[in-house]
Amino acid sequence: EQKGKGGQGSGGGAPQDRPAVRLPEAAMANPTPYIGSKISLVSNSEIRYEGILYTINSQESTIALQSVQCKGTEGRKMPDIPPSNEIYDFIIFRGQDIKDLTVLESGNPAINDPAIVSVNRPPPGGKDGASKG
Questions:
Q1: Backbone φ, ψ for residue 94 (5° rounding)
Q2: Which class for 133: exposed (0-12), middle (13-18), buried (19 or more C-beta within 10 A)?
Q3: Regarding predicted confidence, which is higher, 74 or 113?
Q4: Across the strands, what pairs with 92?
Q5: How far, in Å, CA of 71 to CA of 100, rounded?
Q6: What is the model's pTM?
Q7: Which DSSP symbol is given to 47?
Q8: Closest by Cα among 123, 98, 18, 105 to 53
C-alpha cells in the first residue's frame, strides 16, 4: 500500500518572476503628490487601464483609481481584449498584479501644503458646468 511517491518531480520549476510596481519609494511613504494624477496602469494580464489616482494603501499594497476606463490589451496579448467605453467609478488593484504604472498627467495642486488631503477641480470645458440643450 503506497500513500504517495515522495521526491518525484520538482513541482514545476522556479517561481514566477513578477515585476515590482514602478513607484518611487517616496510615493508609498507619501503618496500625496501623486494623488489626483492621471495614471496609466498595465496589469499582469496585459490589460491597460487609465484613471485618476485616488489612493495608495501601503499596508494592503493596493492602488485605487477613480473614473477608470479599460483600454484593453492593445495587442500585448492574444486573444486581444478590446477597449471598453464604460467608465468605472473606482477600481482597486493589488500591487502584486500590476505590471507597469505611469503618471500621464500630474494632478499636483498649485498649493503644496501637507494639511491638504484632497483637491477638487472643476470639470474641464466650462466655468458654470451647466450643459445647454
A1: -75, 135
A2: exposed
A3: 74
A4: 64
A5: 14
A6: 0.62
A7: -
A8: 105
